[in-house]
Specification:
This is 2TM domain-containing protein. By secondary structure, this protein is α+β, with helices and mostly antiparallel strands. Helices cover 71% and strands 8% of the residues. The chain folds into 2 domains: 3-146 and 362-440, no CATH class; 187-343, Histidine kinase-like ATPase, C-terminal domain (Heat Shock Protein 90, 2-Layer Sandwich), CATH 3.30.565.10. Strand 4 and strand 5 form a beta hairpin.
Length: 441
């Protein structure tokens, strides 16, 4: 047990001992005060430590974030059993061993049933508060972790994207300059055209530097210019076919995705005049497809797959629709989702962070409201019960506010912790997944 928890239990024991000593002890002697303190410590440490151990054990074996409903059910069953055992044990030691107000036979015969029942309810309320507090702490950790993960994903995707754009400069420039140097003497007109195409490519890269999405039309025009350079470089060893529907032109894709995929086709496949590489770019059902016949090039080292992984990651930050990859013995195809609307966000990282923070803030606010209600119940109901027992022990009216308020708290807890809404959330997720799969195929 942590030192902080021990200090809290000691203060609770001292406060409880003083209360019972002042209001319920006839002989105000040091011995009676010491006895009250010992009894209070017994109740506080046994019940408090027992519930704390249960909570810690369940947190390790069955965290709230992994199985909320299952954890709630197991917590309720365990605190009912453990608190009943601990309360009966403490009451037996108190009334039979310390105060000697009853024999063991009288205690188990039912003489102290009301006191046992009352103490069990108090213990259950305190235990429920502790478990709810543990749930809130777990929720806060999960919310912070989700925000951090979204920020890391966004930063990683942006960093890789910048790296890929920078890689375009040395590799592509080196190969293009070699082609240009040979064209200057052989075909000056073609060299001039080649230089103009190169300038268009680098202008496009600079223009799309800070954009999350571009129109299909812009990306296709850029890809055609890029393919012209590749065609000049490889001549009849590479052929390109573009068959994208005009209605798709005003929709959106992530920038430079076609360039990366076209570069992958050239990089991972060999191309000769006798066995040319055919690369097709076409559209089907809100999807932009890039397909090539498979002529795998033998490589000295395995590719890291950074380009394709970056495209998948950037799409995951903007939409729930997936990038699909098909591979057979004859062809390799990548399917890019075409988005009909451009997300109204300034930055993906900020959007994801704000969304996660807003969700976490709303959730914590709901739980804090439940805790305030539960805390008030734990304080007021015992006070009403004590006043009732002192003023009119034969007319136990405190049952009515205890039961009525208790039912209200139970309903509040079910709404906050989503016990009654799981089927709705599952159904919504199923419908969304079906829609995403339908559009993704």
């Amino acid at each position: 047990m942590k030192r902080k928890n021990i200090i809290i239990l000691l203060w609770i024991s001292l406060a409880t001992a003083i209360f019972f000593f002042v209001f319920f002890t006839g002989d105000k002697t040091f011995y009676n005060f010491l006895l009250s303190l010992i009894i209070s410590c017994m109740y506080s440490f046994l019940i408090g430590a027992g519930n704390g151990m249960i909570n810690d054990f369940l947190n390790k074996r069955l965290p709230w974030s992994e199985a909320t409903t299952k954890r709630a059910v197991i917590s309720i069953i365990s605190i009912l059993i453990i608190n009943s055992i601990l309360v009966y044990f403490c009451n037996y030691i108190n009334f039979v061993v310390f105060q000697k107000n009853a024999t063991p036979e009288e205690f188990f015969a039912g003489k102290y049933n009301f006191i046992n029942w009352f103490m069990i309810n108090i213990a259950l309320l305190i235990s429920a508060f502790l478990h709810a507090k543990g749930f809130m702490e777990e929720l806060k950790k999960s919310s912070r972790k989700e925000v951090v993960e979204q920020k890391l994903i966004a930063k990683s995707a942006n960093a890789q994207f910048e790296s890929l754009k920078n890689q375009l400069d040395p590799h592509f420039l080196f190969n293009s300059l070699n082609v240009l140097s040979s064209l200057i003497d052989e075909n000056p007109a073609q060299a001039q055209k080649f230089t103009a195409s190169m300038s268009k490519i680098y202008r496009y890269v600079l223009e799309q530097k800070d954009k999350e999405l571009v129109t299909v039309e812009d990306e296709i025009e850029f890809a055609k210019t890029y393919c012209d350079l590749l065609k000049t470089r490889f001549e009849d060893s590479v052929d390109f076919e573009f068959n994208v529907k005009k209605e798709e032109y005003k929709k959106f894709v992530v920038p430079l995705s076609l360039q990366l995929l076209l570069e992958n086709c050239i990089k991972h496949n060999f191309a000769t005049s006798s066995r040319p590489l055919l690369i097709k770019v076409f559209s089907e059902n809100d999807i932009l497809c890039i397909e090539n016949n498979l002529q795998v090039r033998e490589q000295m080292k395995e590719s890291a797959g950074i380009g394709l992984a970056n495209i998948v990651q950037r799409y995951s930050l903007l939409t729930k629709r997936n990038v699909f990859i098909e591979k057979s013995t004859d062809y390799f195809k990548v399917k890019l989702p075409v988005l009909s609307a451009k997300p109204n966000v300034v930055s993906t990282a900020i959007h994801q962070e704000d969304k996660s923070y807003e969700k976490a803030h709303k959730r914590v606010k709901e739980i804090k409201s439940f805790y305030a209600n539960l805390t008030s119940y734990c304080i007021i109901i015992p006070c009403l019960a004590i006043i009732n027992v002192i003023t009119s022990p034969h007319d136990l009216w405190f049952y009515f506010p205890m039961l009525g308020w208790g039912i209200g708290i139970a309903a509040h807890g079910m709404s906050v912790f989503g016990i009654g809404k799981n089927w709705e959330e599952k159904k919504i997720r199923e419908i969304l997944e079906k829609e995403n799969n339908r559009y993704g195929k």
